């Protein structure tokens, strides 16, 4: 389980909002003990935007539930705004969840018989100092959809309602449990951008947990002794955007200030307006667009590591670039011109 902190967040003189000390959680399943967390320490500053990454089963949701007062640790303390919530009774925990925490869940949890506005309004009726419902709905881009029911909205719009519901409570802390897990990639990116905007506009501390595993929708292939991967896999794994223009057989990959344009079956790429010769061309294979792994990784500032024993390709955000393997061209996923 890893934590990513957006250092561009609000500066509140490094004032600590949450302090997790030695938290351990063990679930008792009959006669079997299942450890979920072991001696976890964590500090979260006021106004911070924090993403917790990890594979399924690494304890992300358990940690979030403990911080949110929905679960108790086996050992350890959670201090929020100077108070140790582990000493709270049931009534105090209810007050804490109601007034201090805004929750965003993976599957929205909206009331189907209420409109978007009514769903948000319902949450504000049970807490103090709520924000204006219509203003919050405008902020999340649903000003013209507030009178629609969940069944009349897309998944992304429903998640925006769920975010508005959490924000409108005007809580100090926003806890988001895999808010993009039920959405497609492009909608998920928009939701994460929205949460970042809310962090900045309302000065809320935001903690998001996401699955840290990158799942390939198709295996890599080999062309001219070089490895190519599906372009969508690259985008989903490392926050790049992808635009495909079928009429021109062109794919554009963008991340930060880097813009890469590739044409299918062409050994010329355009990087930030400059033509660059590449040793293997992009290709269409099995209904997907494949791009050269090594070239894209180097251009985007990623590293690639190939384990010859296991056949596993690792792609990361570090500076070091490993030597690309020459893969046996008898592989079943090898293609030729």
Descriptive report:
This protein has 337 residues and is α+β, with helices and mostly antiparallel strands. The protein has two domains: 2-211, P-loop containing nucleotide triphosphate hydrolases (Rossmann fold, 3-Layer(aba) Sandwich), CATH 3.40.50.300; 221-335, 2-Layer Sandwich (Copper Amine Oxidase, Chain A, domain 1). The protein has eight helices and 21 strands. Strands 1-4-9-8-7 form a five-stranded mixed sheet, with helices on both faces. β2 and β3 (32-45) form a beta hairpin. α5 runs parallel beside α6 (185-202). It is globular. The two termini are 42 Å apart. The model is unreliable at 4-13 and 319-332 (pLDDT under 50).
Care to give the gist of this entry?
This protein has 337 residues and is α+β, with helices and mostly antiparallel strands. It contains 8 helices and 21 strands.
Q: How much β-strand is present in the residues?
A: 25-35%
Give the beta-strand count: 21
Instruction: Categorize the overall geometry.
Output: globular
CATH-derived topology of the largest domain = Rossmann fold
The string of secondary-structure elements, in order, is EEEEHEEHEHHHEHEEEHEEEEEEEHEEE
Percent helix: 10-25%
Q: How many distinct domains?
A: 2
Count of DSSP-assigned helices: 8
| CATH class label of the largest domain | Alpha Beta
Largest beta sheet, briefly?
A: 5 strands, mixed
- Compute the separation of the termini in Å: 42 Å
CATH superfamily of the largest domain: P-loop containing nucleotide triphosphate hydrolases
Please name the CATH architecture of the largest domain.
3-Layer(aba) Sandwich
Mean pLDDT: 81
Structural class: alpha+beta
**Spatial strand arrangement across the major sheet:** 1-4-9-8-7
The Cα radius of gyration reads 23 Å
Poorly predicted ranges: 4-13, 319-332
């Amino acid at each position: 389980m890893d934590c990513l902190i957006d250092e561009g967040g609000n500066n509140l003189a490094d004032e600590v909002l949450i302090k997790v000390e030695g938290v351990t959680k063990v679930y008792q399943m009959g006669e079997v003990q299942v450890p979920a967390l072991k001696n976890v320490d964590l500090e979260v500053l006021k106004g911070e935007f924090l993403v917790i990454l990890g594979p399924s089963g690494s304890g992300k949701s358990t940690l979030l539930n403990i911080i949110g007062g929905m679960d108790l640790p086996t050992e350890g303390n959670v201090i929020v705004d100077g108070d140790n919530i582990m000493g709270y009774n049931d009534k105090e925990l209810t007050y804490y969840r109601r007034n201090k925490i805004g929750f965003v869940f993976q599957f929205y949890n909206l009331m189907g018989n209420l409109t978007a506005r009514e769903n948000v309004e319902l949450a504000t009726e049970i807490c103090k100092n709520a924000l204006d419902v219509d203003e919050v709905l405008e902020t999340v881009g649903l000003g013209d959809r507030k009178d629609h029911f969940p069944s009349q909205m897309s998944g992304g719009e429903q998640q925006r309602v769920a975010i508005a519901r959490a924000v409108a409570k005007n809580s100090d802390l926003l806890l988001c449990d895999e808010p993009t897990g039920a959405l497609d990639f492009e909608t998920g990116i928009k939701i994460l951008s929205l949460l970042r905007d809310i962090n900045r506009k309302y000065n809320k501390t935001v903690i998001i947990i996401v699955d840290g595993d990158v799942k390939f929708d198709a295996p890599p292939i080999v062309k001219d002794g070089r490895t190519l991967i599906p372009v969508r896999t690259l985008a989903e794994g490392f926050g790049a955007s992808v635009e495909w223009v079928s009429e021109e057989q062109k794919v554009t990959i963008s991340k930060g200030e880097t813009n890469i344009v590739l044409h299918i079956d062409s050994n010329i790429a355009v990087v930030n307006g400059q033509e660059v010769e590449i040793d293997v061309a992009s290709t269409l294979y099995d209904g997907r667009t494949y791009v050269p792994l090594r070239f894209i990784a180097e251009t985007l500032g990623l590293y690639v590591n190939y384990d010859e024993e296991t056949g596993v390709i690792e792609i990361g955000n570090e500076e070091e670039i490993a030597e690309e393997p020459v893969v046996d061209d008898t592989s079943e996923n090898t293609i030729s011109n």
